[in-house]
Amino acid sequence: MAKIGIADTTFARVDMAGFAIGVINNNSEHEIERYTVPGFKDLPVACKLLFEKYKCDIVMAFGMAGPEPIDKQCSHEASMGMQMVQVEAGKHILEVFVHMDESEDEKEIFEIAKNRAEKHALNALVLLEGKEALTKNAGMGKRQGKDDEGEIKV
Amino acid sequence: MAKIGIADTTFARVDMAGFAIGVINNNSEHEIERYTVPGFKDLPVACKLLFEKYKCDIVMAFGMAGPEPIDKQCSHEASMGMQMVQVEAGKHILEVFVHMDESEDEKEIFEIAKNRAEKHALNALVLLEGKEALTKNAGMGKRQGKDDEGEIKV
Amino acid sequence: MAKIGIADTTFARVDMAGFAIGVINNNSEHEIERYTVPGFKDLPVACKLLFEKYKCDIVMAFGMAGPEPIDKQCSHEASMGMQMVQVEAGKHILEVFVHMDESEDEKEIFEIAKNRAEKHALNALVLLEGKEALTKNAGMGKRQGKDDEGEIKV
Amino acid sequence: MAKIGIADTTFARVDMAGFAIGVINNNSEHEIERYTVPGFKDLPVACKLLFEKYKCDIVMAFGMAGPEPIDKQCSHEASMGMQMVQVEAGKHILEVFVHMDESEDEKEIFEIAKNRAEKHALNALVLLEGKEALTKNAGMGKRQGKDDEGEIKV
Amino acid sequence: MAKIGIADTTFARVDMAGFAIGVINNNSEHEIERYTVPGFKDLPVACKLLFEKYKCDIVMAFGMAGPEPIDKQCSHEASMGMQMVQVEAGKHILEVFVHMDESEDEKEIFEIAKNRAEKHALNALVLLEGKEALTKNAGMGKRQGKDDEGEIKV
């Protein structure tokens, strides 16, 4: 049994963590630690504490980015912070970010967010099984938040 | 009782730190340490010293960015520096930045700055209570500097 | 005999790692360790573990980036993470990335991916021979994924 | 008495360091250590050595960036390097950069460079006095290289 | 007598390292260690090994970037990796990069590459003499790869 960290924000407009927690609870006995911060730039420290203080084996980080160029810059800073944290820890942070310009339809944003959260929760469970547990799907064009694109056939 | 660091700049055109200090003093007994630097690229070192030398438990960093592309680049550098500092410290820096292109009206910039500073001061107080103190608002579309966008309902 | 790490993703649409493994096995006795992750932002941690836990001497990291600006940003974050890892380890990660906007023709993307994977597998084998093993080709305009451009003659 | 590091470049077209040294010598007894490098990407190492080998308490780094996008990229890399150095040292590097596109008039570039160097030299002297020595000017819209913008009044 | 590291790539289309080595050998007794990698993203690890394993006192890193936006992104990643390495080592890496969009004429690219390599080789020799050896040229608008722009006179 492992411990899965869940870091999320009050900025996001969908409770993505809730969907991921549902998938984890339905498919495993893993323990969950949750940490909620204001915005995605606060996620790296939350992830670090989930690894170091709360002893998580893997973390999922949920965020939602606005549609403006400055929002992209901020999501980049959050992602770089999470690279620093996961490289230091030697443990994966699955970044589950939704960008508000992925669709103009709020309902579709909701569906993307839910689908991405749930599929990445399954990814987290498989990654915990070992470094080759996902190898059967290597190069298969898997997507989270939308349909798989699939392998290029020639 | 905790210690809250306040890092701000002489470059900014609004005394955001003053608003945050008001909120902190009205809502808590926490001690405050303030550190003022010329511009936002000087904030990361100020934050580091607030953590290491002045033993702050959390830091709020206030900055204001000009409207030009080079100003965005500089704010990015400041933000990356603060990611380095907070990841190293394992403690949150709440970045309270206002971009001068958020409005063409100076009065509105003032209101954004005041609102963002005050709401993030409240976030700092709640974060000090623990990792799930903000979870009741996870995914609720909270905003600082403007009205909440709210949860997407489907 | 050395150990070569192979890190790849389920996001990619071509099994580039498979081509590289073929080249390595046909041209050497080196041992191979494979690690498959969901997307390229997960590669840096995989590479770190291939170095530290699985004792690889060099790593090849395979990824495929979508055609949108946000995909470029994400590939940048993955690359920066891999810079952190390889600089810390003092060992090379050969980054084998294909961008979906390198061609509008899927078949050509496949050929670029295969060629780049195979040529970089040969690069990995030569790099393992020492710091001057590639010097005979220094400044010769070598390319992976397409034809060599060659040396500028004056 | 403190020690102030001065790092500058042969690339710049104005001897900004000279102006800063004049201000420091006219207003303090602080010792000065100077380090000149070819371009601004070489400044981070110079700053690090000024801190570690030459025991400076604060460093001023002077650079001039060309007008092209690639010059902005390079200045960004220099700035990121200096963030790494100052965050590691826990000591301030005041970055005094002039961009050649701040004016089309060389004489004005000269004036901006001189003014920015001199005002930041005064900032360095005040920062050495302590973390609240600049607080009286917090949020006052101070500028270096041009006139102050001042506080937004409402 | 010092040791100068030379890191270069098979991707570049001009043997810049060769020109630099000529200058070093004609003007000094310094020892040279060369390390050739496939592309410029592989330079940071080469530089690190030149410092740590081969005990170089300074390193010159030669690379050539393609003309597309993605090439600029890759050169940025290489440069950031080299900032990490040189800041960690506290020793200079002189980055000698040529961008293929500096000229549409291959012959001119060759001349820029040769000139930049040779002038930076001289810079390396002077930097080895100490932190103020270049100060006589501070602010003098020196350029590598093209003619000096010179000091702004007012």
Please tell me about this protein's structure.
The structure is a homopentamer of 154-residue chains. Chain A is an alpha/beta fold and 154 residues long. Chain A has a single domain (3-137), classed as Lumazine/riboflavin synthase (Rossmann fold, 3-Layer(aba) Sandwich), CATH 3.40.50. The first copy, chain A, has helices at 16-27, 43-52, 69-89, 106-127, and strands at 3-9, 31-37, 58-65, 93-99. A 4-stranded parallel sheet of chain A has the order 2-1-3-4, sandwiched between helices. In chain A, helix 3 links the parallel strand 3 (58-65) and strand 4 (93-99). The relative contact order of chain A is 0.18. The model of chain A has no long low-confidence stretch (mean pLDDT 97). The C-E interface holds C 72, 75-76, 79-80, 83-84, 86-87, 90-95, 99, 120, 123, 127, 131-135, 137-144, 149-152, 154 and E 8-18, 33-38, 41-42, 44-46, 48-49, 52-54, 69-70, 73-74, 76-77, 80-81, 84-85, 88, 106-107, 109-111.
Strand order of the largest sheet of chain A: 2-1-3-4
Oligomer: homopentamer
Count of spatially separate domains of chain A: 1
**Could you please say which CATH topology of chain A applies here?**
Rossmann fold
Instruction: Determine the structural class of chain A based on helices, strands and strand pairing.
Output: alpha/beta
Largest pleated sheet of chain A: 4 strands, parallel
CATH architecture of chain A: 3-Layer(aba) Sandwich
Tell me the name of the CATH class of chain A: Alpha Beta
Summarize the amount of helix of chain A as a percent range: 40-55%
Largest interface: A-B, 43 and 37 residues
User: What's the name of the CATH homologous superfamily of chain A?
Assistant: Lumazine/riboflavin synthase
- Can you tell me the overall shape of chain A? globular
Report how far apart the termini of chain A are: 42 Å
State mean pLDDT of chain A (0 to 100 scale): 97
What's the helix-strand series of chain A?
A: EHEHEHEH
